[in-house]
Amino acid sequence: MDIRIERLLRELTPQVLGTVFRRFGEFEAAEDAVQEATLAATLQWPFDGLPINPRAWLTQVAFRRMTDHIRSESARRRRELDAVLQEAPTCDWTDCETTLEDDALGLLFMCCHPSLSPSSAIALTLRAVGGLTTAEIARAFLVPEATMAQRISRAKQSIVHSAVPFELPPPDERALRLRSVLHVLYLIFNEGYTSSTGHHLNRVDLSHEAIRLARIVRKMQPEVTEAAGLLALMLLTDARRQARTNDAGELIPLGEQDRLLWNRRQIEEGVDIISDTLPRGSVGPYQLQAAIAAIHDEAANVDDTDWPQILALYGLLMRMSDNPMVRLNHAVAVAMVHGPSEGLELLDTLASDSRINGHYRLDAVRAHLLQLAGDTDSAVTHYRAAAAKTGSLPECNYLLAQASRLSSRT
Amino acid sequence: MKYILMMSGTRAEFDSYARWPKQDLKANVDFMRTFSKELRDSGTFVAAEGLAFPHEARIVRAGRHGEPITDGVFPESKEFLAGYWIIDVESPQQAYEIAARASMAPAPKGAREGHMPIEVRQVMNGVPDEWLS
Questions:
Q1: Contact A193/A207 with Cβ under 8 angstroms?
Q2: Residues on chain A touching B40 (C-beta within 8 angstroms)
Q3: Which domains does chain B have, with CATH numbers?
Q4: Which residue in A47, A50, A57, A311 has a CA-CA distance of 20 to 30 Å to A263?
């Protein structure tokens, strides 16, 4: 299919689905109707050319399918249909721009509702808003298609049962609810970014999908600075993707990456977004992380990195959220600015935090700082301890390689 | 995150299983079928297999020229894998809860002490558990 048509359809699908769902309810039937409309478009548009208003075209076809669906149901339903049809305004679709964008946003709010588990919200968002097929999502998460189908259908059921509303949350709730939308997009991005090691042919690129969705959210909610912050963070992180593994799929730490492989265009875009956003006030964690990523991305080499500024940003981040991973990264920044022993002291205080005690990253960071301090034996011990705790194969291989490299030097 | 739940037994335990009364066997098989359906319905199922009895099990090593050298005499105490489930869950706790459910598979009175032990291990993923920047 024409790539332009495909892109257009993926952009329009959530808007049309939102509209159909708002009008008729019945998420599953609405989805089927929109899917049929999309299919009709892929068959007709390449030959007939694009309709003047593609969105109105899709909406009308989906409305007709939905009407057929309801007609085929019982008499009780028929009475409901009458009510719906009477309500249906004769809409000049070109005037409905705002409503349609709100519908897509409403759909996103619904799919990312905090009452859904993260894995349900992710699956539903990719299906309903991202327009991916169940098979594509299943492949991306390496689970059987039947399992993913079940997950999506349970997510829909829990939306029905918990009466998650399909509507834009009232303004006072919106900031809170947007946080869960952004969090779901962040999780999707992270899944795609971290699994980009190795060769996964046929896997949908989840990071690019997350970036695409983040662009939509930012466009629809331009006043939300954290939406811009998240988009910038994704762009600035994804820019390093080519450099973070070698051909064998082995991890390369930031300090040793070939910075010529970094995607300059993406870095520029990310830096522009975050530079525009930060001065607007209401700074949040995504913006701060994006600012930190920007500092790394703009340094010509690891020694040029502006660690004092990174340290200051982690300080702000710590004041904003009590996250042990933030404190861990803060300890690294302290070590880079004030020397490894000060960083190691901070790790001692972190070890009493049950949320991170026993996590492999605590051992991995300790090993790294011990290595910087010249305590090779202890560094080797902690690299091995970290390797034994991680659930990630590339990470495990990297940590063991660090340990053996160091121990062969002594 | 993916976990593998493994059930194992000594050869003596396999032999005893083969002599369970019919209704006990049926109860066990029914339980396993229901359990498997629960995993599928909850959207956590990735894979599951049962293994043949260990009586024909062999340990294979390559000889000097890569030829297979088999060894089939095992100590009485050796535990053999009987079957496994691979599940995709949100937390280790969820994996433990599902394992506890599998552990409740029924057995005849006196066949074993308490519930069946299930070994739970995380399946390595290709994914570094990374925290951005």
A1: yes
A2: 146-147, 150
A3: 2-122 (3.30.70.1060)
A4: A311
Closest-CA residue to B39 (of A147, A84, A347, A243): A147
Residues of B in contact with A119 (CB under 8 A): 43, 88, 90
ipTM of the complex: 0.83
Q: Which residue has the tokens 């009477």?
A: A86
- Tokens standing for residue A82: 């009458």
User: Are B133 and A293 an interchain contact pair (Cβ–Cβ within 8 Å)?
Assistant: yes
Helices (H), A299-375: 307-320, 324-338, 340-350, 360-373
- B91 part of contact set with chain A, CB < 8 Å: no
Could you tell me which residues come within 8 angstroms of residue B78 by beta carbon, excluding any fewer than 6 positions away? B10, B11
Nearest CA in chain B to A313: B133
SS3 label, residue A129: helix
In chain B the first and final C-alpha atoms are separated, in Å, by 22
| Contact in structure between B86 and B2 (CB atoms under 8 Å) | yes
The residue type found at A210 is A
- DSSP helix/strand/coil, B61: strand
Token match 């327009």: residue?
A131
Residue B78: how many other CB atoms lie within 10 Å: 11
Contact (Cβ atoms closer than 8 angstroms) between residue A243 and residue A258? yes
Q: What is the DSSP string of B77-121?
A: T--EEEEEEEEE-SSHHHHHHHHHHHHT----TTSSSSSPP-EEE
Out of B42, B46, B128, whose CB is closest to A392? B128
Half-sphere exposure of B105 (CA within 13 A, CB side): 22
Strand partners, A103: none
Beta-bridge mates of residue B125: A392
Whether residue B120 lies within 8 A of chain A, CB to CB, comes out as no
pTM of the model: 0.82
Q: Give the closest-approach CA distance of A156 to chain B in angstroms.
A: 13
3-state secondary structure string across A121-139? HHHHHHHHHCCCCHHHHHH
Q: Among candidates A377, A375, A351, which has minimal Cα distance to A363?
A: A351
Residues with Cβ within 8 Å of A372's Cβ and at least 6 positions away in sequence, in order, are: A335, A340
Kindly give the parts of chain A with pLDDT less than 50: 88-95, 197-199, 201
